[in-house]
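# nightly structure sweep
# worker-07 picked up a monomer target from the shared queue
# config: single-sequence mode, recycle default, output format = structure tokens
# input follows
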Amino acid sequence: MTEKTGILNYIRSLIKTEKVSEVKILDNTIPNKLDRQLESIVKSPLLSRDLSWLTFNERVLDQARRPELSIFEKLKFLAITASNLDEFFNVRIGSLYNYIDYGKERVDYSGLRERPFRIKLLSDINTFYEERNRLYRETLAPQFRENDFDIVEYDTLSKEQKKEADAFFDNDVFPMLTPMIYDQTHAFPILLAKNLILGVVTKNKKKFSKTGQDEAFRLSFVQIPNNLPKFYTFIEGDMLLFVPIERVIMANVQKLYRNIKIESVDLFRILRNADFTLEETDDMEADFVDEIKQKIKERKVGRLVSMVIENEPSEWMMEILKKKWEIDDYNIFVNKELIDFTRLWQIVNHPEFKDEMSANHQSIYPLNFDRLKLSAIFRTMREQDVLLHHPYNNFEPVLQLIERAAEDPQVMSIKLTIYRLAKNSRITKALLRAVENGKHVSALFEIKARFDEENNIKEAEKLQKAGCFVIYGIGGFKTHTKLMLIVRKEGDEVVRYAHMASGNYNEDTAKLYTDIGILTSNPVYTKDISEFFNVITGHSEPQDYQNLITSPRDMRKSVIELIRQETANAKAGKEAGVCIKVNSLEDKETIFELYEASKAGVKVELIVRGICCLRPGRVGLSENIRVKSIVGHYLEHARIFYFHNDGQPKVFGSSADIMVRSFDRRIESMFEILDDHLKKQMILILKYNLKDNVNSYVLNQSGEYHKVDAGGAEFNLHEEFFNVSQDALKGVTLDVFFCKNEAGKTAKENEQD
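# output follows
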């Protein structure tokens, strides 16, 4: 089926189901003009950001189908798809409702207006739910018992096990539960997002109205606190049995309703709009922090955007909830399996299965040092720049750098940006220790980091009370850059040391995300970073940086200029090519510049993990552009920009994706790799990404992805980087993708010929 046919069938299905009022394609087009309107939609040069994200979550789900993975790895990916979708509803669907509820216009990249786009998104999500549930039910659940565990229903327990579960309810659960009634004399209760909730319909047979009509039905709710375990666990020989906690509660729910008949008990879970904007002013920063705290509270009562409920719920209850929450059937998802798949983390992280989930790989030392001398890390950094490629290279050098700086009497100051921290962060502890030791510490805490606001405020206030100079972000922008500067007195000389990275200062995610970071004392870098901190902690205007490229000021312009140079090289008959690795590609201006490069004959290789709004492979537009996505054991998070530059490559690391928010609404940094050895390592990273055929998916111009067929020779970059050696750097290039021969073809094209 062609792309156009698929869209036509979708729109016509809305018309057949009498939802013509929802079909507001652009200028409220009437149905008999749809074909002409749809023609322009199909020809759109851009893919939808949100639909592209949904295909990313499908690729995450696809990992649960990989036969070589353990059942615990597969359940991990199921849990990730669930938490991903939670955030998608909180933010993207929430944002869409900000337009719908307030009558504002929004046209998606696909050309659909806000109301039909809502239907398209929610319909696709429902299809995803059904496929995930089927995979769980038919493929994964049958593997549980052969792996010494099972998820079981309360009714299947033995008499003794039920007695034990009931005792747990009486002693630990019952005191925490509070039935909340809703009727004429009780306001509708605030039901919390992400909690499991029981909707209980009760009936008093003696209550009738004056007309004799039965008015005995009452609706109440029982919220299951999130601090309860998601499963109650039994040990049965070598087997672990996990009973969903709600089944234990439902079996005992009558204890909450003495002498009242329960008509129905329905389990559901809701999500709310968590997308908020701040009215930022030049008031004192304390007011800004208070506003953040207030917005966090408002999330608890935000507009409802999703409801997942078990089969055949009470129609009487559903009629009330739909009206109260202003939702329809598109917002409601019926689940025959677990209501909340994020709970699978309790099984995946169970101590009994620790060996099944632990990595078999030991991290390797950076390629430009046989052994990174942590005991003399400042001397190591003075000798040479060091590239760290996490998690293949341990995050420990970064942690020990800041910990040693906190204790070193020669260190005078530490400055860094913080976006997301680990729980019980060693970074925070080191900064507190540095302040205690009399060092000047400046920390830019980004308290607008979505869903980490509370933790960042708490950590920032802790440091501030200890005497650290804390900056709560920059008005109007999120500070997403990852930079650290340490100033050290060495004899008569003051030496600056820096760390620049694509990932957060978070020792937990550094084990799971692939990122790059550079340890350096190169004055070209450190002078720029010093200037950068002076700008964000004071009121100075930055001079032109020697190496650093920042947003919102210069990054989009610089990236476009670099692409245009490749276009000019191609037109002049020189070697030209672009290779970019990012998490998301959405910025229109950059996309259209890549299209112009493609038209000029520039070969463009894009490695985009998630959202990609660029259509590759369209004749006359992007036929020289290939897009691949890598989804596997580690979350690909590094951002690398490569420009072939007629055989003298320019390579950059960055904290930024190619997104409007990154270029216009965030403080980001991009830095050119100056050291030849490090440049080779960065090129090797790109080469392995392009070579991978185990975790890779290729994007079609329709917006669909297909899995790369590994054939006979598998190349798994998530394995290969643990075995990489200095020999791999010998003669490493991307020339196979970009070099022109006399006939004007690339070497890759010649190989195919």
